[in-house]
Amino acid sequence: MNTFKRCLATISRLWQRPSASWLPFTTQVLKCDPSSISFDADGAPMIKSSETLAAIRTASRHLAEDLQTVVFPTETVYGLGALALDASASARIFVTKGRPPDNPLIVHVSSQQMLLSLLPAGYTLPSAYRVLIEHFWPGPLTLLFPRDPAKIPNIITANQPTVAIRMPSHPVARALIAISDSPLAAPSANSSGKPSPTRAEHVLRDLDGKVGLILDGGFCDVGLESTVIDGLHADGNIRVLRPGGVPVEDIEWALRHNSNQGTVPKVLVHRRDFLDEDIEQAPTTPGMKYRHYSPSVPVKLLRTISQPPHGVEVLTLLDLLDSLKRSLTSRTPLNVGLMTPSDSSIVEGLVSDTEIQWHQYMLGSLAEPAVTAQRLFDGLLTLEKAGVDIILVEEVSEDREGLAIMNRVKKAAGEACWITTSV
User: Fold this and answer.
1) Residue 403: which H helix or E strand, with range?
2) Is 224:376 a contact under the CB 8 Å cutoff?
3) Dihedral of CA 39/41/44/50: which sign?
4) For 209-249, what is each residue's pLDDT tens digit?
5) Is 82's pLDDT higher than 80?
6) What are phi and psi of 132, to 5 degrees?
7) End-to-end distance of the chain based on CA atoms, in angstroms?
8) What dihedral angle (degrees, nearest 10) is formed by the CA atoms of 138, 400, 412, 388?
9) What is the band of 75 on the pLDDT scale with cuts at 50, 70, 90?
């Protein structure tokens, strides 16, 4: 039996017959002050708050000594971390989340020295990677690298020949990795398929009793997962496998203005500029194969910008309201969550219907997609907690952070409809 099959067997055994160490936890939440953390030139953390230092040291012991998972904040979303170089520790991530074992994990490092220690001997960073690391690390950018099977367990990469690595910019995340003196594998800290948490309270509501420790470092600044890039192809182009916290436009700008070669790499977005069915069936990075980001209530995407496919009916607001009432006749009153930009053109026409109990969650203005990105998952989870019957999410333009926003919304939504505001 090869190593990957042994890992799968371990996960299956733990799902079926948990040991005493896998029984429900009493989940502890420890506050951390990100502003008390700084780093020296070598990336070593300096922590002024004794409370924060104690919390991070406790988390480090959970990880390194007990081989347990720990929830910690990043600038993107909260992560569920375990030692990346220990297969049995990383297996706990899959069991805790209910995560399919063929869905790879991202490895988080605290310094470029830690990155280099993971790469195959003699490997030279591509020039495009050097540019991207200089501009966007630490930060919400993940890069694919060749995997050294002597260092990176199969369970991390789902037996793929590449490994996804990033350096988070959140001080608590980076300090935890540095003090643990080990890279951490860390997907989002939620049950598999659910919206990613951007607050510690989101994690506690979902994983209470399933994790022993949550480091509470406040609200996540970016609010969406990292952008994932594959720059390993022979053509030298950059392939965006998952849009995220670093907009494609910023990646293009950095490469265009910092390329020392005659040819600037093209930046190609999966499913927009290229298709790769093989990578969707055997993904090299999270977020490509399975349905994600879905709350426990239905989500409907309201298409107000894009053109409908040929033959698809376009609804008026009145048509939409009638459809909601017909489809949810057993709910009285009907509670509808509404996530729209603050300057939406459709809100007034919807909330004027007083037969429906509206629960509004504003996503920021159309001119500020970064604010919408930050608020998206919080909106889904807030409305789910409010007990609505359905959540309506208005489409935004797929520019800058909007590309990642719509990637998440389209995966969360069970259906979509095209709306016209004209009478």
Assistant:
1) helix 401-412
2) yes
3) negative
4) 999 999 999 999 999 999 999 999 999 999 999 999 999 99
5) yes
6) -65, -40
7) 65
8) 100
9) very high
